[in-house]
Amino acid sequence: MKRNLRSLFYLLFFSLFFQHVVAQIPEWNDPNSLPIWMTQEEEGRKDEIGRNFLKSAALTGEVRNVAEFERMEGVLVRYPLGLPTSFIAAMSKHTVVYTLVSSTTNENSARSAYQSAGATLTNCKFIRAATDSYWTRDYGPWYVMNESNQMCIVDFPYDRPRANDDAVNGIVGTYLNIPVYNMPVVHTGGNYMTDGWGISASTDLVYEENSNDVAWVNQQMNAYLGVDTYHVTIDPLGDYIKHIDCWGKFLDVDKVLITQVPTTNANYSKYEQVASYFASQTSAYGTPYQVFRVYSPSGQPYTNSLIVNDRVYVPIKSSPASSTDNAALEVYRQAMPGYTVTGIYYSSWQSTDALHCRAMGMADRQMLYIKHQPLTGVKPYQPEYGITAEILPLSGQSLKSDSLFLIYQTNARSWDTLQLVNTGGTQYGAMLPVNPGETQVSYYLYAVDHAGKRENHPLIGRPDPHIFNVIIPSVFVDFSASATSATIGENITFTDQSTGSSLTSWIWNFGEGAVPATAEGRGPHNVVYSQGGMKTVVLTVNGEYTKTKTDFIEINDYAIYSASATFSGGDLPTDSYFTDVTSSSSCPGVLSVYIPSGAIITGVDVSYSMTAQYYGYMADQRSQLRCTSSGGLAEPVLVVGAGNAPGTYTYLRKNLDIANGVKGGGEIRFELHTGRTWSYSGYSGCQTYNNKVDDNTWKVTVHYTFSQVPVSGIIVTPEEAVIVKNEQIKLFVSVFPDNATDQSVVYESSNPLVAQVGGDGTITAIGNGECLITALSNDGGFIANCRVTVVVPVTGIVVTPETVNVQVGEEVQLIATILPEDATDQRVNWTCSDPSVAYVTTDGKVIAKGAGVAVISATDHEGNYTAECIVDVPHICTASGFITFEKWTEIRGTAVSDLTNSTNYPDHPTITGTLDNFVIPSNSGDYYGCRVSGFLCAPETGYYRFWITGDGNVELWLSSDDTESLKTKIAYHNSATKPSQWNKYSTQRSYYVYLEKANSYYIEALMKEGTGSDNLAVGWLKPGQSGIVPSEIIPGSVLSPRFGNAPVVNNFSKANELKNIGLQRSIEFSVYPNPTKGLIRIVPSEALVSNVLISVLSMTGQVVLNKNVDSINQFTLDLGHLRANFYIIKIQYGEQIFLKKILRTP
Predict the structure, then answer these.
(1) How far apart are CA 802 and CA 240, in angstroms?
(2) For 145-173, how does the pLDDT look when each residue is reduced to its tens digit (9 = 90+)?
(3) DSSP-derived 3-state class of residue 335
């Protein structure tokens, strides 16, 4: 929909003091799923909602959110189910059921249950994803079409603190191989419905869950989902769950279903108010919404239904269906004629939780989308109404041009068919005829693409078509002419044929060059024209009723003659193999018309009748006229019959240009190629059984002249052209005057190695360079040139090598290769992301300047393609002999959090200084907190173990490199210890931590002192040492302060790993390639058979991706949806944690 946000957002405001009637929360006893509401424990974790959600850029261009009632390729559920398996079995007979399963065991259980229920297993697919609940509607994906007409998913922070559920949409996007965009609005699918045209609806829960920032929510909904109009209402149910699907539903673009409750219901007036609200709003079709009401006397969840293509599944709470259930099903049938409506009984349905909550439609990624603004309401009478549509095959396959139809009926008569004709790009149209006296028109559109996709608009087609009514005017205006083609000075008589009562006035306009130009009165009127061309004639009757006939009269500067011939050799057969313009009939009719010498043909008329019989339909008929004499052409399109019934259809086409310019002097030969799209069994190939051309009906009339109008000059368009190699453009030639007899030209290229030109003026680019394409008129030898420049565009760029390690002062030459090798523009621009690390010359030479990591980018001159090389200049860290000490006084409490929550922490310490080893002065005061922080320069490579001791609550933090934000708490204790009392608490000691020699690591110790003695120290065991206490307090010789001369290390090639390992054995992991453009492979040193958690963290510590793997021999992870940046791969196996920093490149 349009991205310009219209200022039309609706919020129903009610009294601030209305009485809330809150539904009692039912008990929840299902061990397979968390409830649809938040548990008491989850209420305490609401701050986790959206915490690790990584917002992506919004979609660009036009965005369209797919509606539930559009074409679906399947339904998403979760196992264990919240649905009866019999329902899964029923759905699988008509659509694909996608099931979220957490493991192989889980999948096997689902398969067994489905098979036992009689499901069609070939329509059952499984997606591996851990889940917390079975509310796939609430956390499942929302589908949009982007500006390239590609199906995409929009994800959102699920409004429950359920990490597994919230991660599902990324997993589904990977499974379906479609892009996923992350919208930052906290939301839930049960509180959202859309019409597919940019109008959506929710309760005001969406504002409440996003800080009541109405403008921001509306802007985000527009940017990611294309929502132009957002109907936001209160929930008539009260504040219990506030999901719109508990009481409302879009059934189509212009249809809304709203629950109706008894007048005794406490919320009766609120239900009526929201129903009245939607009835007063305008749908995307420009009409008021049709509001249907479904009666729910006892909280039956009838609006919580599921629409899947032409089927509607409605939850009912009685078996067999009660009279109330049957009445609800009948409402759906009346609102959705032609759909199969089925009641689904399940004992666990709740009044605010049923079928819709537990299943989610999955939009057809290859849908054939028809966008059509229907004619509705009452229209003034016209003989024809233009019907237009945009037809988009998302399959990537082209449309079947002979299978695009407008199917219509008037006054409930039989249905007729018109072919939709391409009017440019993806636009199609047809003129729907309406005869006087026909007051109601019903129609729908039908399309087929070469992928086999078929679609109607509206989706159900004939049972529920678009309908509009016609007002019959009191006057019908019409007129005729004695001739529609004449020469200058030849008389034409115009006769009024208007009908109606009280015709009182007639005003005529006969067009340019007419004598007289205008006239009044009924006539007849005699008119001659003083100049040639096409003439438009207008007649207005009674001052308000007008008939315009555009290009009605053709006036020629010279006399036109005609010659005709009629085929009388019997009925002509049709061929089952001639159904498109790329083929030919194997049995065409042949007819010749004699044209005298010296004549030049100016036009052709053709007429014939085709009869469909014996199960053949007139709509099956296809035909095309061809002039096969030298210089002749074929009609550019097939002509299609109309009518889904046997009968005789008459064809008439005038002024065809298929023989224009052909010279006389003998028989001019024509072929009528006819075919059919269907044959009765045993009657294939050429035959007259089902469809035929009737004998003595095929007539060809050829118009010609003897007057020679000489050519006075020609011009070509364009005069200059830049063409991409292997592409084509069409050269257009204008011959002057435009009525010159011989319009033919010939073409020539000055250099066929650069560009070649065909006889129709099509220029094909062959190779780099310039040349002239010359057009030469056959009459007069006039010349016009087009200067053509052929370019080979850049399609990519490659830099070698992709990674280099250099020392400060060293140089390395990078090579950039423009693709393809013969690209016209070979220029390359070089840039460096960090000039303090490296400098790059204009020819790609890199000079290392300082320690760190820099990205050298090579970009083509137009800036469309970039390749990169990662330059790593290692830093050998050196310690300064000190570490930073900071102290905050007058802080009450004994918990470390009392320090970190202080308003003065961390920016305003009372005292700042340095220590020459990792121990603070003891007994320096009461009620203070301190931080000892800086950088540890590892003296050797291997596994270290750390201890912390202190008289107060203490914590020890260590980072995977010198980045403070990546620090991890590795040891702590919450009660006092004496100095050097290293083993009082098990948490004082860290796991083994892997550090690399000469690499710098951020380290931090925190202590909160209450009263009494105070002390803090950090010790360690270095690689090769063993023991139950540290070998020493960490000395100043390996430390540097947090401020001043802290070492800065970004040693990408060493990839600083932080590994927490158990005492029994350690598992090594390989992560490659690094850098990566998207895919990485994770390989453990031995096969793992228990659960492995793989996470991807941003450099700020946010979790952007989680994967649970049952077992792992090797695993491929796709980071293609993440933006280019550094990330941390975190692998947790038992008590072991492995961290690896990687670079995602563009």
Answers:
(1) 57
(2) 999 999 999 999 999 999 899 999 999 99
(3) helix
Asked if 66 and 145 touch (Cβ cutoff 8 Å), the reply is yes
DSSP per-residue string spanning 997-1016? TT-EEEEEEEEEE-SS---E
Q: Which pLDDT belongs to residue 91?
A: 95
pLDDT tens digits, 857-897? 999 998 899 999 988 887 667 788 899 999 999 999 999 99
Amino acid at position 146, single letter = N
Distances (CA, A) of 325 to 264, 312, 341, 609, 766: 20, 14, 12, 55, 71
Question: What is d(CA 1135, CA 951) in angstroms, rounded to the nearest whole number?
Answer: 28
| pLDDT at residue 1047 is higher than 50 | no
As beta bridge partners, residue 804 has 871
- Looking up tokens 């799209």 gives 677
Flag whether pLDDT at 546 surpasses 50.
yes
What is the edge-to-edge ordering of all strands in the sheet holding 1092-1098? 1058-1060, 1136-1144, 1125-1133, 1092-1098, 1103-1109
Characterize the bridge pairing of strands 506-509 and 533-541.
Answer: antiparallel
| Of 948, 879, 952, the residue nearest 918 (C-alpha) | 948
State CA 492 to chain mean position distance: 58
The DSSP secondary-structure symbol of 449 reads: B
The whole-angstrom separation of Cα 127 and Cα 100 is 5
| Active site annotation includes 357 | yes
Per DSSP, the three-state class of 241 is coil
Portion of the chain with pLDDT greater than 90, in percent: 65
Secondary structure (H, E, C), 1044-1068: CCCCCCCCCCCCCCEEEECCCCCCC
- Establish whether the linkage from the previous residue to 26 is cis, with ω within 30° of 0: no
Count CB neighbours of 393 within 10 A: 22
Q: Locate 465 and state its tokens.
A: 């078509």
Q: Which of 152, 246, 357, 937 is catalytic?
A: 357
Model confidence pLDDT, tens digit, residues 14-63:
333 233 333 334 455 676 777 777 888 888 888 888 877 888 888 888 99
Question: What is the C-alpha separation between 443 and 415, in angstroms, rounded?
Answer: 9
**What would the two tokens of residue 112 be?**
């067994």
Mapping DSSP to helix (H, G, I), strand (E, B) and coil, where does residue 112 land?
A: helix
Determine contact, residues 616/678, Cβ cutoff 8 Å. Answer: yes
